[in-house]
Amino acid sequence: MFDAVFAALIARLVAENPIDAQHLDEYAGDLVDSYLERPELVRLALWDRLERGGAGMRSPELLATDAAKAAAIADAQASGVVSTRFDAAEALAIIIVVASILPLVLDDTSDARVREVVTTAVTRLLG
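^ thats the sequence. predicted structure below, dont judge the formating
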């Protein structure tokens, strides 16, 4: 049952937040908005990692989606829009971690400020 619910939530998140590798800061901001609207996404993902070794994050569909996102970031890196300081998979991981964890840590901060912190961090790390 967990797998079905988790997969449906992740599929919705992916569908609602297509990557724009030319504007990774905005992509991260959109993820923040989704996580703030549905905090259960992050909680379930963390539980999946801690208790199930990340099995839910390794579905073939999610792996294919992540590969496509990393490829888009690699293309943006090749065109000079995104820094090559990190490889594409690392850049994607940074975006996901910053966008998902900072809202939990900055829980006394306004949603607008959390989004600003995340987008600024992504710009400075990956721009």
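The first helix runs from residue 2 to 16.
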